[in-house]
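CORE FACILITY INTAKE
Project code: CF-77B
Contact: R.S. (postdoc)
Sample description: multi-component assembly, two entities in total
Requested service: structural model of the whole complex
Turnaround: standard
Below are the sequence entries exactly as provided by the requester. Do not edit them.
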Amino acid sequence: MSSPKNSEIRIALDAMGGDFAPRNEVQGAVLALRELPDKLRIILVGDENKIAEELKKAEYSGDKIQIRHAAEVITMHDSPSKAVKEKKDSSLVVAANLVKNDEADALVSAGNTGAVGVASIFIIGRIKGVSRPTIAAPIPNEKRSFTYISDAGAFVDSKPDHLVEFATLTATYLSEVYGVKNPSVGLLNVGEEESKGLKFTKETFDLMKKTDLNFIGNIEGRDIFKGTVDIALCDGFIGNLLLKQAESMLSFLKTKFKQYAETSLIAKLQIGLAVPAIKKALYDADVDNVGGTPLLGINGITIIGHGSSKPKGIKNMILQAAKAFDADLVNKLKEAIENEHERTQSS
Amino acid sequence: MSSPKNSEIRIALDAMGGDFAPRNEVQGAVLALRELPDKLRIILVGDENKIAEELKKAEYSGDKIQIRHAAEVITMHDSPSKAVKEKKDSSLVVAANLVKNDEADALVSAGNTGAVGVASIFIIGRIKGVSRPTIAAPIPNEKRSFTYISDAGAFVDSKPDHLVEFATLTATYLSEVYGVKNPSVGLLNVGEEESKGLKFTKETFDLMKKTDLNFIGNIEGRDIFKGTVDIALCDGFIGNLLLKQAESMLSFLKTKFKQYAETSLIAKLQIGLAVPAIKKALYDADVDNVGGTPLLGINGITIIGHGSSKPKGIKNMILQAAKAFDADLVNKLKEAIENEHERTQSS
């Protein structure tokens, strides 16, 4: 895999993944190319005819997009492991193989999250020394920044040493790709005192204290939105629940404002006037404005997005992949994991 | 303990518990009495002089409030078990003893949550057959109602059969006190399929299927705000994290709106005009408008509130206790737990 700063990145885009595929995927690819015309080369993987039709509608005339046919589709209802094993000619599996065979640098998909994880781990493969990759999901916080929940659901039932890996991978991602200096890590727990929580959290706390990471101790559920730390560390079972609750806030707010608007004409007017300001104030809470979440620890760049991603969301996922590529992410993660292993062995 | 519908309820109010004690506690008690003058009898427990001073300021002239002196205070920083054991003359311990000795029907406190739990369990005692009480915390949802997270943090590391108890207690609470018909219960998990999740969730799923409760299966983190079920069932470690994240939403929104308002004069004007509507639309998301959370499974009524509770919040906690008393909650919970045990033994 090549990755010098000024070279092109080749994106394998699972064009059949999302709920509005391939339309949103194709439009997202075109939007991304408008922003970074010299940086991107995009391979749209999926049903050739459908993709060509959407591409025609999108009126793209450049030469940076190509189509790679794949006859099958992995749906949201498919069992991840089974689907990746059996649907060899699915858009996701074909796209993952492009990365594996160095025909692409990044896999971008708004499809079945579990299947994207399985395809990344078993087709593209893990970085040497990584036992469990992690999903690092950005949640907007009060500090005009993001708190990354890690692991946000790549694995359930992780062990304390897996959490140390998650922290190492995520801290490296934030410092290398987003320039966050010495990212702070907090362990999600039911109280701040070291003695709080489960056997699992106490063991993780002890291991984290020994790392070179900027570990600040235990944090609570409120610290995610508050932005107390850059990284909120937890097992993927908990991370997935917290991520989905945080993401559902926007739908909750929309419904509440709508319900209030229905109470009177004045209320309707008030909400009508307020909506543009609310949207701007909560810009970062709209996942389409952010993009997706990286799966860290893979021997390539994987960006996983929401099934409901709009073209703007797909565009942002592609831009995220490009940013990670420019930072030479995979090699930086390799170095970080090696250093962490050396530290553990010498201590 | 007496509890006929039309009788008075005697509230033991920990007047030193909250961050603004005893001022907010005293004012809250007076507000509650203005709403239910014939229903309530309130015993303010704590520093006699300070309470008397606040009571004077509140200009209460009725005879439904009395003061019970307690010299010590359990703070937010105290270790719950240690504090309850050692501070025998603390406002919390004295208030809990009033319930134990049938001098009061309910314990209401905005103090150290862990200590309120310990005092309730070890002084007032559990209902026979209940191995673990549960905190059932209401989160507003899109269905103009509340989703109760249970257990929201009374215990960490609960077992599947504890969760069945939590569900039984919470469902009985909702149906008896709030008239929710056949409350639906969902098990918090990382996906809806029965096979998803941890060994722990699979075992809980199997046990829940066998109950007479309205168990609808697994739910995800988004279902809390969405209102898919009445009760979101989980271990207290997870419930505490989700509760605190949900509660921190309002502070996040305030900060985001403030940050946007600072971007321009027009933005400031927009937000200024929007705030009243936003506040009304999100009325239920303000914990002071709701009150507190019951600790269910105790041989008495316990309502736990936020340390930051305003007088309105204290008032609503007292009204919650009165509502539970009118529904003869403790006896209803006893019956429900007995029935559940009979079912288990006969099956």
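Facility notes:
- The CA atoms of residues 28 and 314 of chain A lie 5 Å apart.
- Chain A touches chain B through 52 residues (CB under 8 Å).
Invoice: internal transfer
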